[in-house]
Structure formats: C-alpha cells, structure tokens
C-alpha cells in the first residue's frame, strides 16, 4: 500500500464556511477517483500548540495510483477552488506503508 | 479512533546511520507503550519536491491515550536521543479519524 499524507495551515481570516466547503469538496474525491483505496481527513484537535490545522491521509495500491490521484482533474479543481485560496503552508510525505505495530 | 500524524525534515548532514537508528528506536515503541493501537512510519518516496522526509502515523483509542504516548518516558527518550539531534522542522496534527471512503 502506498500512502499520501498532507497537512495544511490556513491563512488568517479563513472562515468556517471555507473549511466546511473544503470538507464537502474533499468528500467527493473517493467517488470521483477510482484509484483511491482509503481517504481520511481531520481537523486538528487543539491539544498541542504549533500544530498544522488539517490533514489528509490517502491510501493507494501503488505510487502510480497516487500520481493518478495527484494529477486527476477533479482533484486539481478542488485544490484550485477550495485549498489554494486559504492555504498558508503545506507539508507532505508519500511512502510505502510500513507497519511497526498493530493491536 | 484518535490519530497522531507527525512529519519531519532532517538537518543537513544527517547520516543514513542516524535515520536507521531512528527507525530502530521507533520500532520499540509499540512494544513499550500499550496505548498504541497502530504505528506506521515511512520515509518519503521522493516523488514530489519540497516534501517532508519522514512521517509517523499512530492510532489510539482516545485523545487521552495519545497523551499517554506523547508523555511516555520511553517516547520522550527516543525524541531526545534520536529525533532532536537531527530535526530541522516538524509538522503535526492530532484528530478524530473521519473516513470519507474505503474500498
């Protein structure tokens, strides 16, 4: 399994409506992009200071399938309309899953 | 399920030995900290420029269990010995898991 993890911080003045709209838009991606195996999002719980504000964890069968997602026009459209206007910073890693422990 | 995701970049001059040592040290955590439900690590695959270099995705039953992990002396020891000496930057999010799609 190949995993894509990306985190964001939002610019000052980002509204709750914009954050809700982003969740709505991202929710459409698993239905639109068949390469997605698992798609999980989350807003930071506010436990630790200095955290990023939002995360996406997406799993694919292969790096090629991740690239198909990355470059998919429906995904690019969500980035342009719902992410780029509110993005302050971004941090990402893609990697082959390596589980150290599972209970 | 409550998830902790953290990414790192390493300082210039970080050696392969230091990166291997970090993986070795992190591999001990699921056995040492019973609150860990799932523990996955990965080094960036090098597909996209500007990425972070390493990620940990850890799942817990609750935010309290995450905090037990965060503050566990075995974890703090790994941070001090194997992460802090090579860390350039860090990005983290903790959140309640919200799956949008699963195939």
UniProtKB/TrEMBL annotation, chains A, B:
InterPro entries: Dabb, Dimeric_a/b-barrel, HS1/DABB1-like
Residue ranges annotated for the Stress-response A/B barrel domain, each copy included: 2-95
Superkingdom per UniProt: Bacteria
Entries under SMART domains matching the protein: Dabb
One Pfam family here: Dabb
Assembly with partners or alone: Homodimer.
Family matches, as PANTHER family: PTHR33178, STRESS-RESPONSE A_B BARREL DOMAIN-CONTAINING PROTEIN
Record's protein name: Stress-response A/B barrel domain-containing protein
